[in-house]
Design brief:
Layout (H helix, E strand, L loop, with lengths): L1 E5 L4 E5 L3 E2 H7 L24 E6 L9 H6 L7 E3 L4 E2 L3 E5 L2
Length: 98
Amino acid sequence: MATIRFIKENKEIFVTEGANLRLKALENQVDLYKAIAKLMNCGGNGQCGTCVVEVVEGLENLSPRTEAENRKLKRKPDTYRLACQTKVLGDVSVKTKP
């Protein structure tokens, strides 16, 4: 088991290792999207870049960045990830909507 801590929401959830960060956030009513992106997003395909999160702790406990992330986040810090492309492999703390 791994723990995802959502800092702004003051919420912790427990997930199985390898769980998708976006799916687990949405299943636990953690809002990842700003404004219109709540309605207009790619549904987790790594195409829109609207589910970005900032990893505060546990970056080493996530899957490596995908090619989609490298394209969408090339001008962002290494601590930024697309939740839809990220698998949780251990405990992590994230900030939504950085």
